[in-house]
Amino acid sequence: MTLFLQQVINGLAQGSIYALIGIGFALIFGVLGLVHFAHGEVYMIGAFLGFMLVSVFQLDIFSSLLLAMLGSALIGVVVEAIAFRPLRKAPDVAPMVCTLGLSVVLQNGAALLWGTDTKSIPDAIPNHIIPFLGAQISFQQVFIFTVTIILMLALQYVLHRSKIGRAIRATAQNKDAAALMGVNIDTVIAWTFAVGSALGGAAGVLVGVYYNAFYPMMGFMAGLKAFTATVLGGLTSVPGAVLGGLILGVAENLGAAYISSGYRDIFAFAILILVLLIKPSGLFGRGIQEKV
Amino acid sequence: MNFYKDKKKITLLLISIAAILPLVIVDQYFLRMMTISGIYIILAVSLNVVTGYAGQFCLGWAAFYGIGAYTSALTVTKLGWSFWVAFPLAGIVAALFGIVLAIPTMRLRDIYLALTTLGFGEIVRLVLLNWMDLTRGSMGIPGIPGPTFFGQSLDSSLFYYYFIFSMVLIVIGAVQRIIDSRMGRALIAIRENEIAAKSMGINTTLYKIQAFAVGAFFSGLAGSFYAHYSSFIDPNAFGFGESIAVLAMVVLGGMGSTVGAVFGAVLLSLLPEVLRGLAEYRMIIFGSILMLVMLVRPQGIFGHSGEGQRKIKRPAEEVRSDGVIGNS
Amino acid sequence: MNRKIIVLVAMAMMAVFVSGCGSQNTASTSKEITIGLTAPLSGDNAEYGQSFKNAIDLAFEKANANGGVNGKKITLVANDSKADPKEAANIAQKFVSDSKVIGVIGDFTSTAALAGSPIYQKGGLVQLSPTSSHPDFTKQGTYMFRNIATQEQEGPLLADYGINNLHKKRIAVVYINNDWGIVAKDNFIKGVQKLGGEIVATEAYLPEQGKDFSAIITKIQQSNPDLLFIGSMYTDTALIAQQARKANFSVELIGTGSLYSEELIKLGGSAVEGLHLTCSFYPLDPRPEVQDFVKSYQVKYGKAPTMFAAQAYDAANLIIEALKAGATDRLSLRDKLSAVKNFPGVTGKTSFDENRNVDKALTKLIVKDGKFVPYNP
Q1: pTM value?
Q2: Between helices C330-338 and C307-324, what is the axis angle to 10°?
């Protein structure tokens, strides 16, 4: 029982990270209908920004987190301007291949800039253990849960209570109708990228701090897994991405614990395929209708 | 189509050049590069059948390559079978897996299909990695022998070059036959508008399965060749990166264009070598080229505007039959 | 029209490529000796490949400062294999086709070294790997050499350390699921079982799974071991140690020589205090060649050398030794290299046996006060 509970806790922590990244995918897909292959790299850059802020500029973790989020948001907007906007009229393959190329450029650019060895921040968050029903929660895990919940509440507020949030939701529902209603689509898309990337950047900083490891390749697998989470939740649904992330995190850890840690990544992909075969719209997504 | 005659002439010219090339340029490194491009030409052309012509976006193509390679390597090293049996077997086994992957495509389209194929590709790689007893996992399979003919070893670079050269000709010929046939037309119809095709009585499921089977078959053959050419394989050679590389070749060349696939394959398999001098910046340049091509000419170099232009339907934007735009 | 221009540009590039190949010098310059390096200079394993290059550059620099080898300047041509077998094979062919190159050092990973082997063997070009420990590597041909002790040596020694020195009985194992990790794990477990120890848990992880080891740590914690063997490189080991401490799991740790690096301490901090390992190289070794190497490396690169750097440094000097013994071309380099006996390398006395493997004396070390010191039972 302890093993089970512990793995669930571990899984929730990991899942929160997937959730934060996954929200970005959901927002972007909801508004543009496209997969953003370089989103994992935005997460990675956010992590490195956080690393630089803490270790080079000696800022505290909270300010670094906020600044890193800001930096990631900016990068997200730039990415949209370079890789998506010019290709609005092109076949959908184009922005996807373009972001694929971009992700390669960013990964290797980061490697050139920061070196490929793993960096670390010595104990940015003090290490305490809180016993919990026989298992234990570490302070870092608490930090991750707290930050994630705060960010999600903030996101919900933005999406449902602010003007830009309304505009984003409107555009996600029906771009043309929204445009007819006077919504500036370009601005909305830019904001969507900004928000999604900021969350991704936050996830990056959290991961870097939790595992104390920052390295240029960190975006690749995380991006893929987060994407699986988004699909699980329903490609366009933000709460779905969150739930999907948590479920994926927990499933992976339980699978690793009870079945085999080597096959761990297979769980993620197996879930992906099962979802797509049984209910492609995921948990909360809208159904795909075939129309003539 | 007046440049049809030119096209034929150019093709013949290129083929003749390729045929006598190794006799003129004796450099082994050059020969190796040409042989490797040959493998990628086959991979790109076969992916093109599925993604370019049938419009089924596949992100896990390296799986068939890997399945072919491992089938061939294992039957030769563990069972002692001859290359000449293992080679076609590799294609058949890969084709079977192709059919397996094609089945979900009956109901899935676009991004959902792309993701499923991605998952498939990763699962194949992870199984190859973890099933130690069968594949030796990360240890790989070393010492895969080259083909022999009545006891005579054929393990020379000239043999490999001409073998892949012939394979390339056969594969391209076969693909062109398919494109020009009823199946090819059916595939294009499926790509452009699957529902319309279905309503015209085209058995879309059957054709999609056939497309995957054919594409996977040729890629499996390429895998078998690779295994014997390199004499060492490991699961990581057949991962997501490889799938993306082949996809990039098809996209760059132009989806739905065999010429484009050939061009893309040759360019993108040789480019990293040409750029080797700029070693540190190699991958950045590679990625930038992908981006630039997409930004400047998204239909690929040999694609025609209009081919494969389908935009992915978002769930919310369906047009209802009564013409009302909105959320269903 | 655009299309034709693109095609022409592409063909021009191809022409450049072709001409680049064809013009390899067919006669080596009499003033220079060229040695090749195939190693990951970018990608996941870049830090290790880079340390190879650093060490070899240092060795060659010293040799050239002393008037060169047999009066000739020795130069290094480095190619980035990204530890990818396909790249390694292409690089192998490139080197073989370049008649200036008379010997190659590399690769870092066994899979890359194995991929290049058939080509090096066919081309009659020495491939000396400083770190490839896959059992099949040197069996690929008479031109394959390695100067690292294999896990067949290290595993049983570590088992001895754990069971006879540390008196542990219940041992858990974590290893990286690549060819190196698998072999390390196998040999260690065999050694433990031979000495009557009990393996209570065995967990593997894939390199691309990321750096979250909590699932594995929790699982191992449950099996209650008194010693944990980590079959991995220093980065992952430091992280595993840290995460274990964070999960309140304070078991003793033991690992192979791959852990020897100041990065282990930097990343692991207090979590790796007391970690045990065996290594063919450690900085407090009083031998002059070791001290000289450590100091020069520190001065030139601003950090201390790892075991990988030390191995590569020795590899470079082994090649120089063979050259000094009279090697002038590929075949004689192979012959002279295999005849090297008792070379005083920084990783210990080195002699190649008839299978071109080496037997190295390994030292038991422990991390104490943030430094690697010899273990005194």
Answers
A1: 0.85
A2: 110
